Automatic annotation (TrEMBL):
<dbReference type="InterPro" id="IPR026185">
    <property type="entry name" value="EPSTI1"/>
</dbReference>
<feature type="region of interest" description="Disordered">
    <location>
        <begin position="144"/>
        <end position="213"/>
    </location>
</feature>
<feature type="compositionally biased region" description="Polar residues">
    <location>
        <begin position="224"/>
        <end position="238"/>
    </location>
</feature>
<feature type="region of interest" description="Disordered">
    <location>
        <begin position="219"/>
        <end position="238"/>
    </location>
</feature>
<feature type="compositionally biased region" description="Basic and acidic residues">
    <location>
        <begin position="169"/>
        <end position="213"/>
    </location>
</feature>
<feature type="compositionally biased region" description="Polar residues">
    <location>
        <begin position="158"/>
        <end position="168"/>
    </location>
</feature>
<protein>
    <submittedName>
        <fullName>ESIP1 protein</fullName>
    </submittedName>
</protein>
<feature type="coiled-coil region">
    <location>
        <begin position="82"/>
        <end position="120"/>
    </location>
</feature>
<keyword id="KW-0175">Coiled coil</keyword>
Length: 238
C-alpha cells in the first residue's frame, strides 16, 4: 500500500452549503404561494334564472313515462311484424315446395300413362302382327283363286274370302284403336297443360292476394300508430 493523505472534512463549510440550499428551497416555496395567492380566481357572479324549461317536474315525468310506453309499443309491433313476415315467408316456402312436389307427381303420372299407352300400342301391334302371320299361314294352305274360281266359288274360295275379310277387319280395328289412343293421349296432354296453366294462375293470384293482405295490414298498423301519436300530442297539448 502506497502513502496517502487523510483530509479531515470541514463541517462548517458543509453546514453552510446545506443551510443555503434549504433557504433557497424555502424562498421558491414562498414565491409559489405568493403567485397562487395573486392569481386566485375571483368569485363567480351569475344572473339568477329559472332552469328546467316551461314544464314542471310532474309534466316531465309524465312525458318520460309516455315516451317509454310508446317505445315499448313500437318494439312490440316490430316483433309482431317480424314474426308475421317470417311466418308468411315460411308458408310461401311450404306452398312452393308443395307446388313443386305436385308438379313432379303430375309429370310422373303423365310419364306412367305414356308408358302404359306405349305398352298397349306395342302389345296391339304385336298381336296384330301375330294375327296377320297366322292368317298368312292359313292363306298359304289355300289354293290361289283365278277368274274361274271367282266365278265358281267353292269352299276354299269362301274360306279365303272370310280370312281376307277378317284380316281387313282386324287392320281397321287396329287402326281405329291406335287413332283413338292417340286422340286420347293428345286430349289428356291438352287437359294437363290447361290444368297446369290454371294452377299457375291460381298460385299467382294467391301470391298477389297475400302480398296485398300484408301491405294492407302494414298500412293499417302505420295509420293506427299515426293516429295514436296525433291523439297523444293533442291530449298533451290540451
Amino acid at each position: 500500500v502506497g502513502p496517502y493523505v487523510l483530509i479531515t472534512p470541514n463541517k462548517t463549510r458543509r453546514n453552510q452549503l446545506q443551510q443555503s440550499k434549504l433557504s433557497f428551497a424555502q424562498k421558491e416555496l414562498n414565491d409559489l404561494e405568493q403567485w397562487k395567492e395573486e392569481h386566485r380566481p375571483g368569485p363567480i357572479k351569475l344572473v339568477p334564472q329559472r332552469l328546467g324549461g316551461k314544464e314542471s317536474e310532474a309534466q316531465a315525468r309524465q312525458k318520460q313515462q309516455m315516451m317509454l310506453m310508446q317505445s315499448k309499443y313500437q318494439q312490440k309491433h316490430k316483433r309482431e311484424e317480424y314474426v308475421k313476415a317470417k311466418k308468411a315467408a315460411e308458408e310461401a316456402e311450404i306452398l312452393k315446395k308443395k307446388a313443386i312436389q305436385r308438379e313432379k307427381a303430375e309429370r310422373l303420372e303423365v310419364k306412367k300413362r305414356q308408358q302404359e299407352m306405349q305398352r298397349r300400342e306395342t302389345f296391339l301391334e304385336d298381336q296384330y302382327y301375330k294375327t296377320d302371320e297366322l292368317l298368312n299361314r292359313l292363306d298359304l294352305g289355300l289354293p290361289k283363286s283365278d277368274s274361274c274360281q271367282i266365278a265358281n266359288r267353292g269352299p276354299e274360295s269362301t274360306a279365303w274370302s272370310r280370312s281376307h275379310t277378317y284380316k281387313q277387319t282386324l287392320r281397321e280395328d287396329e287402326n281405329r284403336r291406335l287413332e283413338e289412343m292417340k286422340q286420347e293421349q293428345r286430349r289428356k296432354a291438352e287437359l294437363m297443360e290447361c290444368k297446369q296453366k290454371q294452377e299457375e294462375e291460381a298460385r299467382t293470384r294467391a301470391h298477389q292476394n297475400e302480398q296485398r293482405r300484408v301491405n294492407n295490414a302494414f298500412l293499417d298498423r302505420l295509420q293506427n300508430k299515426t293516429q295514436h301519436n296525433s291523439i297523444y300530442q293533442s291530449g298533451y297539448s290540451g
